[in-house]
């Protein structure tokens, strides 16, 4: 089985997207061929061309990306348009899986972006697999997958790997960290205040409305 792993995060190797794709690559094991592609924010057609070149004998595609204004990052959208335009066969048995994470606690916030990618999948006549929606994505690397704050996420990734291997198509899986929501919100507020202070602003400046 051949699986293409595509990261759409501009943070590249340090991102949650690449972190989770590498976890999937390890869990798929050596008996399955996996190729990881990292798309930079400066659209590189060399990478997208390589993706297209590998599509003819690919069984699965896993696309991981961060949520940007309830949508996919613009450079990922550009790459998907290129793939759609240059894909050689519109009749194929490829299954597409996606992992989207956001900075909000609630994983449900990812639902619009997930639907957008499924629309692309239909246009390319690829088969819909499973979407994994991750809330509080910044916490994904705080603990090893399957432990601590990432207990739920680790379990979800294990299930997703089995879905990929079995070419399953299911409803979206929503995952949030093993961490209280109110504490996450408190930490976020502290972060905003610290950032404001570093830029010469007061809390009142953050709360101003245009």
From TrEMBL:
One of its GO terms (molecular function) is oxidoreductase activity. Residues 1-85 form the NADPH-dependent FMN reductase-like domain. InterPro entries: Flavoprotein-like_sf, FMN_Rdtase-like_dom. This is NAD(P)H-dependent oxidoreductase.
